[in-house]
Amino acid sequence: SSDEVSLEQESEDDTHSSHSSLDKQTHHRANTTMHVCWHRNTSVSMLDHSVAVENQLSGYLLRKFKNSNGWQKLWVVFTNFCLFFYKTHQDDYPLASLPLLGYIASMPTDTDHIHKDYVFKLQFKSHVYFFRAESEYTFERWMEVIKSAASSPGRLIHLSQKDTWLG
C-alpha cells in the first residue's frame, strides 16, 4: 500500500512538472498555432484550401519590434493560412508561426507612427503586427496572398459546409 502511494505521488509529480514546463514552452503557441489553426481550419472549404495551396509564398520580411523602433529580418513562409518565421532561409524549424484566419491586412495609419515604405499591418482583435517588404513588388505579392488567406476563409467561418459552396 505504501508502494502505491509513492508511485501515485511520483506520477503526479511527473505529470505536474512536465505539464508546467510544457505550459512555459508552448503557452503562447498553444493559443496561436495549435489552438487557433485547429479550430479555424474546420471551417475552411476545399475551395479556400485550394486557393491557399496555390498562394504559397516565401521571402524575407522585416518584423517591427513591439516596444521599439527596431526591425528584425526574418525568412517568412506562407502556407496553409499561416505565416512561419525563420531566422534564415536555411533553417529547418520555425522560430514562431502566426495563423492568419480572422486577421485583417491593411496599411498602417498615422496613429501607428510607422514612417517606412512597403509596410503592412496584420490585426486580430488586440494583436497587431507590422511587416516591411524589401520592394514594391514583394510588398504587393505578400499583400495579395495574405489578403486571400485572411479574408476569404474568415467570411465563411460561421457558415455550414453546405453554405460554403453556394457563393
Automatic annotation (TrEMBL):
<dbReference type="Pfam" id="PF00169">
    <property type="entry name" value="PH"/>
</dbReference>
<feature type="region of interest" description="Disordered">
    <location>
        <begin position="1"/>
        <end position="26"/>
    </location>
</feature>
<dbReference type="InterPro" id="IPR011993">
    <property type="entry name" value="PH-like_dom_sf"/>
</dbReference>
<feature type="domain" description="PH">
    <location>
        <begin position="54"/>
        <end position="151"/>
    </location>
</feature>
<protein>
    <recommendedName>
        <fullName>PH domain-containing protein</fullName>
    </recommendedName>
</protein>
<dbReference type="GO" id="GO:0005085">
    <property type="term" value="F:guanyl-nucleotide exchange factor activity"/>
</dbReference>
<feature type="compositionally biased region" description="Acidic residues">
    <location>
        <begin position="1"/>
        <end position="13"/>
    </location>
</feature>
<feature type="compositionally biased region" description="Basic and acidic residues">
    <location>
        <begin position="14"/>
        <end position="25"/>
    </location>
</feature>
<dbReference type="InterPro" id="IPR051835">
    <property type="entry name" value="RAC1-GEF"/>
</dbReference>
<dbReference type="InterPro" id="IPR001849">
    <property type="entry name" value="PH_domain"/>
</dbReference>
